[in-house]
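wait is this the right file?? whatever heres the structure
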């Protein structure tokens, strides 16, 4: 799977580097993070990633990607 294909899917719940428990739903939002790649998530994982993912800006910057 290419990086572009992977980016189309949710990286939730918290944007970890392992694929254990990966969501697999289509990503709808992109959350900007400090000194890290943006985190693409589905609506279900948007809230948890804002609270628990590393490097999320506060106030959060969220973009609709689809």
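ok assuming it is, sequence goes like this
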């Amino acid at each position: 799977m290419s990086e572009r294909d992977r980016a189309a899917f949710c990286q939730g719940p918290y944007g970890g580097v392992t694929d254990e428990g990966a969501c697999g739903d289509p990503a709808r939002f992109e959350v900007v993070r400090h000194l890290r790649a943006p985190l693409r998530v589905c609506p279900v994982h948007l809230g948890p990633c804002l609270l628990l993912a590393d490097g999320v800006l506060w106030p959060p910057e969220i973009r609709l990607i689809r």
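The first helix runs from residue 3 to 7. so i think its the right one actually
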